[in-house]
Amino acid sequence: MIPMTLDEIARxxxxxxxxxxxxxxxxxxxxxxxxxxxxxxxxxxxxAGARADGHDHAAAAVSAGAVAVLAARPVGVPAxxxxxVQLALGLLARQLLRRISPTVxxxxxxxxxxxxxxxxxxxxxxxxxxxxxxxxYNNELGLPLTVLRADADTRHLVLEMGASRKGDLTYLTxxxxxxxxxxxxxxxxxxxxxxxxxxxxxAAKGELVEAxxxxxxxxxxxxxxxxxxxxxxxxxxxxxxGRSRRARVRAEDVRMDDRARTAFELVTPSGRAPVELGLxxxxxxxNALAAAAVAxxxxxxxxxxxxxxxxxxxxxxxxxxxxxRPDGITVxxxxxxxxxxxxxxxxxxxxxxxGVRRTVAVLGGMGQQADASRARHxxxxxxxxRLRFDVLITVGAGDPLAMAEAAxxxxxxxxxxxxxxxxxxxxxxxxxxxxxxxxxxxxxxxxGLGACARALATIS
Length: 460
Prior knowledge:
The protein is an alpha/beta fold and 460 residues long. It has three domains: 4-83, Udp-n-acetylmuramoylalanyl-d-glutamate--2,6- Diaminopimelate Ligase, Chain: A, domain 1 (3-Layer(aba) Sandwich); 100-311, UDP-N-acetylmuramoyl-L-alanine:D-glutamate ligase (3-Layer(aba) Sandwich); 321-458, Mur ligase, C-terminal domain (Protein-Tyrosine Phosphatase, Chain A, Alpha-Beta Complex). The protein is built from 17 helices and 22 strands. The strands form four sheets. A nine-stranded mixed β-sheet has the order 9-10-8-11-12-13-14-15-16. A six-stranded mixed β-sheet has the order 17-18-22-19-20-21, with helices on both faces. The longest helix is centred in the N-terminal third of the chain and has 15 residues, at 85-99. The chain is globular. The chain starts with a strand and ends with a helix. The model has no long low-confidence stretch (mean pLDDT 95). Residues 318-444 form the Mur ligase C-terminal domain. Keywords: ATP-binding, Cell cycle, Cell division, Cell shape, Cell wall biogenesis/degradation, Cytoplasm, Ligase, Nucleotide-binding, Peptidoglycan synthesis. It is an enzyme of class 6 (ligase). Residues 108-295 form the Mur ligase central domain. Belongs to the MurCDEF family. MurF subfamily.
């Protein structure tokens, strides 16, 4: 973050100082909404969540080195009080961007945002100072916190932009107007909040390209018809990427090794270069091409992009995170979140990784699937059977039971078990696993199956 006085921050977000002895005190470190992550010289934003109210941790944040607290009420320590902390963070981020001039890259999509963001950051930071979204901090709080990490040296600002309803991306792009907009795909995530079908999701995701200036760049997935349809919604220059021959940034000669890692020939307007990804799953090709499209737009040639992709590794937990246990059991933790598209990709990646080894799937539900939820869970159950997983353990009541029943009636030989909760999943999986097995764990975040994956990964 560029140094700013408390007075400058207060004026940027319309705050009223309380218990502030010196309005000229400098904030020199990033802002955070977690008092445990405060660094000396930082700003603590006190937000009220479902489980905790940051105002209760204001004193601890100042003791840890926060210069002041951005708060909705006085808290007994130096505070800048506003009516809406979330809105104030956005205003502050917008003001900071007026003082520096990085290239703002916004990316959105139903699946693959975080992995693509991580790949892109690792390509770009080899060539210039780059700040990218931490973990999946891609919402109304996370995006301004990312912006506030930028400083005068930042050349590229890579912002993952999530949307759970129409208007979300309009709000986020209002805080950080992008010059480059990347759309990955249109799936069924958050469908119950966006409408009744993919066209409604596309309408929401397309807000990103609508926000681009005429001399900006819209990077669209040539393999997704809903994304291609966004070409008419932007005045920016368009670059297509994908496996389609019409894509200017594309993959040829795609192949997979015995560890389920993909390799391909990267084709860009600047030439060709071989790519060998360190991540598992054929779906990673699309994520890598998306990152390559952005890098191409920013002036990197094919060889530079390939070098960055080849060196890139997984940065975010819970996304096809692999742990090899001493007994030969491989745990694949993909439990950060789930929707039908990511569930299919993850199951296929785990099966490819396993090869001839025995496979176990521990699956919870997929949230926000609206009226089609039961049918979509049943289709996942049928896919588990078609892929010939040896064991399926479903966790929870309702939709997971539809998944279990569909797998059981598919007559493909999968042994199906149901449990009520995470503890039950850990206990049963531990009893059923055999040396050499591959166990795949996935669900929407509210199911908490990340704890199951971590427990299985530490058992030896």
